[in-house]
Amino acid sequence: MVRLSTLGATALFAAVVAADTIVKECGVGIGNCPSNKPCCSQYGQCGVGAYCLGGCDPNHSATLKSCMPAPQCQSKTYKFTDSKSSPILSNTKYLGDPSTADWVADGQPLFSNGVVYLTMAPDTVGTVLASTRYVWYGKISATMRTSRGQGVVSAFIMMSDVKDEIDYEWVGVELETSQTNYYWNGIPDYTHSGNITNSNTYSDWHTYTIDWTPESITWSVDGQVGRVQKKSDTYNATTGNWEFPQTPSRVQLSLWPGGLATNGKGTIDWAGGVIKWDGPDIDSAGYYYAQVRDVTVECYQPPSGAQGSGKKSYQWKDLKAVNTSVVLSNERTDLASFLATGDNPDKKPEGMSSATVTSVKTDAAGKATTVVSVVAPTDSSVGTVPGLDGAGFDSGDLNGGTGRGSGGSGGNGGSGDDGSDGSSGTNSNKPATTGWSQSDKATTGGSSSDAPRQFLLWGNFVAMVLVGAVMATL
After folding, report:
1. Listed residue (340, 389, 470, 378) closest to 52, CA to CA
2. Which of these, 223, 225, 333, 362, is most buried using a 10 Å CB contact count?
3. Transmembrane stretches, by residue range (predicted)?
4. Can you tell me the distance from the alpha carbon of 204 to that of 146, in angstroms, rounded to the nearest whole number?
5. Does 291 have pLDDT greater than 80?
């Protein structure tokens, strides 16, 4: 099975104005990031700021310390009753302190009827929620309903910074099948998959559980064990490695277009074909959506022999990318700004001017008005949020939280600043919005053979201008 396990970001404005290719800058067969943008993101791009937080790849960053230490596990049930019950921050605002948010969002999460909707409006690449805290073995459950439709993929996975991975995935044309999989160090071995049969995943609520110990992984649906993978069956005598997920991982919930036309043929075929942007959910709600009611994390003890006694963070001590490479530490996990890195976590912007955005708005009578808006200073011309340019403004930041009316960022009056509800949320087809829009660039594709990966840059007649002050030290 060829598939995309993690989802990049894309821009959502109104119409396609350009399409380009992002060439991966770091990773296997490519090399490490340079010192001026030292952190290798989950999507194989180099930068500072958020690049150095969740998903930062220590193996392909400039130094072992370029990536920030990861917040340690906390046993908790996360309910999505509203935007304050389990706080979600846009990845353009989160700086690594887990006390400020439970989840980091890339895309458009919406709240309504006691659940969070992971949305995917036409011609976007959907939404990802990633936990701010990591899990180093534990029992993780998500109560959810998947999306549906040809080319539409819902996912609940565990992903480490060295790409150890444990998956549930649901293809929108196979609604009675939960696909499971695991990977070690990102090696694309597609022989590890296994299916669990269950009732309709779109119409029925199910609780999906990953019980991950140092010796096994158990996948269960509604309390019934569907599959067990023992570590003892994963030894590779050639490499001398246990090819079994064993490093601290984030919980990730996502909705993405496996059938995007720019994806590899294998990914499109696996996803049920090229995605159609005119299905019943698009017609009724304006977007595809998956729903998540709650997530429960029960942390297990670190593995026997784990080094260190710290209670705050997980830190890499070497690049072997196995469980003995991780230390329990009390090192900080937060950055002082989006210019900071693990090598220099206190770096702050200096002497920057504000950016301006000029647009022309036309009212119903046809009267045109020129609007000049002052935007907060950009941090740098170096990428600071994976998938975004400059200081990491997303389109919600630049246009005041407004966007596509049919399920975009501001169609229901979200604020775009604090993630608070923007409407009553009584209509399940139009949930309350967080005010975020889907981000500016996407890294899409299936297996590594799909590189170079594609992104779509979306826009309306209003031009978005990002003016970055180039730091002399970068």
Report:
1. 340
2. 333
3. none
4. 9
5. yes
Write out the two tokens for 444.
């899409």
| Domain encompassing residue 88 | 71-321
Instruction: Name the residue with tokens 């952190």.
Output: 39
Residue 22 lies in a domain: no
How far apart CA 398 and CA 332 sit, in angstroms, is 31
Q: How many structural domains compose the chain? A: 1
Rounded Cα distance, 262 and 158, in Å? 26
Q: What is the CA radius of gyration of the chain?
A: 21
Least confident of 203-212, 232-241, 369-378: 369-378
Residue % of the chain over a pLDDT of 70 = 70
Read off the DSSP letter of residue 259: T
Domain assignment present for residue 117? The answer is yes
Task: List the one residue out of 436, 441, 347 whose CA is nearest residue 399.
Answer: 436
| Vertex 409 angle, CA 407 and 410, to 5° | 95
User: Of 185 and 401, which is predicted with more confidence?
Assistant: 185
Q: DSSP label at 237?
A: T
Residues in the chain: 474
Q: Which two tokens stand for residue 220?
A: 């269960």
Which residue type occupies 319?
L
The CATH number that applies at residue 302 is 2.60.120.200
Distance in angstroms (rounded) separating the CA atoms of residues 372 and 265: 44
28 lies in a domain?
Answer: no
Its pTM stands at 0.76
> Which amino acid, one-letter code, is at 429?
N
pLDDT-derived band at 3, boundaries 50, 70, 90: very low
Tell me which residues are annotated as active site: 165, 169
Strand pairing class (307-308; 249-257): unpaired
CA distance 357 to 462: 9
How far apart are alpha carbons 196 and 168 in whole angstroms? 10
